[in-house]
Design goal:
Blueprint: H1 3-16, E1 29-30, E2 39-41, H2 49-53, E3 58-66, E4 72-80, H3 86-95, E5 97-98, E6 105-106, E7 111-118, H4 128-131
Parallel strand pairs: 1-6
Antiparallel strand pairs: 2-5, 3-4, 3-7
Amino acid sequence: MSNKARWLIIPFLALAAGLPADENADTAHLLDPAADRVPLHTVFPEYPERALRDRVQGSVEVCFFVDREGRTSRIAVRRSSHRVFEKPAIQAVKASSYEPLKGNEVMSGIKTCRTFRFRLDPVAIEDPVEFSGDVES
């Protein structure tokens, strides 16, 4: 690598690392793209009536972007075990919000993915003796 090419890369790396190219430059706090944004309001999807009636279980992985103000956008289903769960999962992501970035924070447009699992839990019996057939005399 030539010296000229090396001098072009170093300022770019300093800028990408959130470091000022010189002492007088404004500094920007660069968030770690691997870190998650902090949710302000998380909405959980409703179990679809049809799936509940048919006793269908499954999961949906939804991917989306979070803008500077904490709003979700470009929501898409990445994986789904059953189509009936896709719409409620998308609606839940649309209704959720995240903590906005502060004025000097910068984050590249990274995609976030969430997996929603729709499971039917067994019904708990409050008084097992009453339903066991054993009756006390």
